[in-house]
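Aim 2 progress. For Nitrite/sulfite reductase, the working sequence is reproduced below.
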Amino acid sequence: ESLAAARAADRAFDRWARTNTHPHRHPGYISAVISLKPDGGIPGDATAAQMDRIADLADRFSFGEIRITHMQNIVLGHVRQDQLHALWQELRAVGLATANIGLIGDIIACPGLDYCSLANARSIPIAQKLSARFASPELQETIGDLQIKISGCINACGHHHAGHIGILGVDKKGEEFFQLTLGGSAGNDAAVGQILGPALPEDATVDAIARLVDAYLVHRNTGERFLDTYRRLGAALFKDAVYAVA
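Predicted structure tokens for this construct:
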């Protein structure tokens, strides 16, 4: 079965192939990214059964090679294009076929206060709530390239400073708050995100992110990423979206 024919016949597979694969230098091969970011799930988490299946699939489809990325995902680097659909079917059977690489659902988060004694706040619940809020594949594709990164303390294990939207957990008199930064990037256009304003309580953070995204969708130019829109318009528009709430 050719890759083009499989994509034409299966809309869900086509979406996954569009977001979760990269070109390979060798003709007839492709690099496949397994997202460990299921809707509402814990970023980078996998069950023992899923890990066993990934190992089996690496042997069958990628010469036994598995790569773990700093984005908390897994790459099978050498998949034959005519076997990609079969790989996707196997991944879907064990809940590993989420199509969100590079999109708003592809969140990086450190373990946070749930598991780390250095943390000031819990990262995982915020990541799960954001993932559930933006779970729609159609919405994620509409939003496009938007990287959210969450750290539970200033040690920045979640790379919050390099996120298009960064979220830093802070402690305020024993309560968990979250400071937002905008404009960070770890790409060729590298930049450190700038603090948007006062830290927010946990129960206000997800809604604030949603308002940031809404402002971006309203004011972006055609084909413009969140990062591009932020750099073009500056912080004031987004600051108003977060803090100027009646």
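The chain has two domains: 3-93, 108-243. This observation will guide construct design in the next reporting period.
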